[in-house]
Design goal:
Protein name: Thiol-disulfide oxidoreductase
InterPro entries: Thioredoxin-like_fold, Thioredoxin-like_sf, Thioredoxin_domain
CATH superfamily: Glutaredoxin
Order of helices and strands: HHEEHEHHHHHHEEH
Shape: globular
Number of domains: 1
Number of strands: 5
CATH architecture: 3-Layer(aba) Sandwich
Helix content: 55-70%
Family: Belongs to the thioredoxin family. DsbA subfamily.
CATH topology: Glutaredoxin
Number of helices: 10
Function: May be required for disulfide bond formation in some proteins.
Structural class: alpha+beta
């Protein structure tokens, strides 16, 4: 997908909070309401927009993928290419992987906030599910339907509705995520998804053969 415009942090935060509230009839606010209901919201991370690493943190090669959870090409990479890359390079300690979210729309941001709500250990599980079931959860034009689809994924991943509501009504996190996305994408010259940065070298949508060749070269250096 091509990045034509970037919404401001304030506008995107509105999409995260007010539109979610309107679409899903949630309680008024997040953490306070969740606690009032007897369910504590997940503790806020020191940096809600931190990079989440998959694999050996000391691996000599780093893949950074800029991906949108609603991008069909990103889903194709996740479903068809990434499993082999993970098996051959990440699981063997040669490569570490970082996914950086791109927010083309409110659904991308909602999905990211749910994934991060589960903590680092669950993040890539949610990501895998989003891409595997992209047409199922993101295919509707009705925000209320998409909101409930994301709730269903969250429940399957071990979160309850109170936790999800608290996370999705966290305006500070929404603003931090969009700010980090905008700054990182601008710094790295990202204009489409998926885009990969392998040890500082940028590549656009890659086939399995192309990525393996780039990784073999990076590992050998």
């Amino acid at each position: 997908m091509t990045m034509k415009t970037t919404l401001s942090a304030l506008a995107m935060a509105t999409l995260a909070g007010a539109f979610w509230l309107g679409a899903s009839a949630l309680p008024d606010t997040g953490a306070a309401r969740a606690q009032a209901a007897g369910t504590a919201a997940p503790a806020a991370a020191e940096d809600p927009a931190r990079d989440i690493i998959m694999g050996n943190v000391d691996a000599p090669v780093t893949i950074i993928e800029y991906a949108s959870f609603t991008c069909p090409h990103c889903a194709a990479f996740s479903n068809d290419v990434f499993p082999e890359i993970k098996k051959e390079y990440i699981d063997t300690g040669k490569v570490k992987f970082i996914q950086r979210e791109v927010y083309f729309n409110r659904y991308d941001l909602w999905a990211a906030m749910v994934a991060r709500c589960g903590g680092d250990m669950r993040y890539y599980g949610f990501s895998k599910t989003y891409f595997a079931k992209q047409r199922d959860w993101a295919g509707s034009d009705d925000p209320a339907v998409v909101a409930e689809n994301l709730r269903g994924i969250a429940r399957a991943g071990g979160l309850n509705d109170e936790q999800v509501n608290a996370c999705l009504n966290d305006q500070a996190t929404a603003e931090a995520l969009v700010k980090a996305y905008s700054e990182r994408a601008q710094a790295d010259g990202i204009n489409s998804t998926p885009t990969f940065i392998i040890n500082g070298e940028k590549h656009n949508n890659m086939s399995l053969a192309d990525m393996k060749a780039a990784l073999d070269k990076a590992v050998s250096q």
